[in-house]
């Protein structure tokens, strides 16, 4: 089960952010935004001319005492960051990949909405509900 999801634009501006515990939102924002350095490092070091063939899933970016941070980057450089509670040992790598695929699909649906303005933060209640369902595993 994920505790936080962040979607970051190609210019490293936050597009969407949600947590299961709103009281810790600022702490999780710090963790998500600090993960961007690791994402950029993985993108720059791992793709010396093979940018089209790279893997979208970046894996675990780093781990803390209480949380693990995972990353995923689309072909258009949109970054998805998931923060998972480190005490959850039942969550496997393929389940994290599945969560990223579902989030990517929901993101593609919201961006294709004719009322969405490209580049603006996502403020849809239905999108937030869908992401929280993916985070808790009730999808």
Automatic annotation (TrEMBL):
GO terms for cellular component: perinuclear region of cytoplasm. GO terms for biological process: endoplasmic reticulum to Golgi vesicle-mediated transport. Keywords: ER-Golgi transport, Transport. Pfam families: Sedlin_N. Belongs to the TRAPP small subunits family. Sedlin subfamily. PANTHER family: TRAFFICKING PROTEIN PARTICLE COMPLEX SUBUNIT 2 (PTHR12403). This is Trafficking protein particle complex subunit 2-like protein. The lineage of its organism: Eukaryota, Metazoa, Ecdysozoa, Arthropoda, Hexapoda.
């Amino acid at each position: 089960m994920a505790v936080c999801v962040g979607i970051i634009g190609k210019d490293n501006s936050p597009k969407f952010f949600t947590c299961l515990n709103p009281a810790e939102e600022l702490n999780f924002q710090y963790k998500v935004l600090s993960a961007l350095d690791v994402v950029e490092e993985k993108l720059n070091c791992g793709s010396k001319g093979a940018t089209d063939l790279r893997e979208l899933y970046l894996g675990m970016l780093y781990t803390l005492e209480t949380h693990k941070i995972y990353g995923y980057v689309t072909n258009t450089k949109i970054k998805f960051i998931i923060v998972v509670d480190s005490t959850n040992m039942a969550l496997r790598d393929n389940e994290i990949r599945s969560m990223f695929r579902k989030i990517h699909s929901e993101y593609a649906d919201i961006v294709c909405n004719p009322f969405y303005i490209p580049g603006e933060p996502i403020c849809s209640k239905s999108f937030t509900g869908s992401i929280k369902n993916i985070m808790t595993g009730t999808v």
